[in-house]
Known about the structure:
Distance between the termini: 62 Å
Number of strands: 0
Amino acid sequence: MKKTLTAFALLFALTVNIHAQQIYNEVKNMQKGFYTVKYDETKSMDERRVASFKWDAIEYMLVKSNDDATFTEYQLGEQTLAMTEFINLYFKRLGEAKSKPKKDIVITRFKNASINNSLFNDMDKDLVLGWYNSTKFATPFSLDTNWTKALAEIRGKSWD
């Protein structure tokens, strides 16, 4: 009985590790796709800059997760998907806003959701706010964002 339980525990641990590796590999594949767009001169500069932000956000999470033993591959996958949805929703809302004041509201709400939902509480503000503070990029968000919380905050807002 003890050997059977040990075998099941080992099998479960192996299955979890394989699943975690699959998530990590998928995130790396997404990052590779963003890298490709980032350097594709046939794409518009805006597309390339958005892909550059997505690549940077994933790279930031990968680097910071090395310092945080509690950050799992599952969280990495969840954060990456939420980040992509957050940015897609941002551009959708910007497209729906027909006047400058409405566009400003969209930008402010998304920036606030990004800055108010820190993931790692990184004190290197020059790094994490590089995109946030720049006016030349279409993605003015903090790299240190808990994307699932930021996305939930945005989805909870009334857009009427």
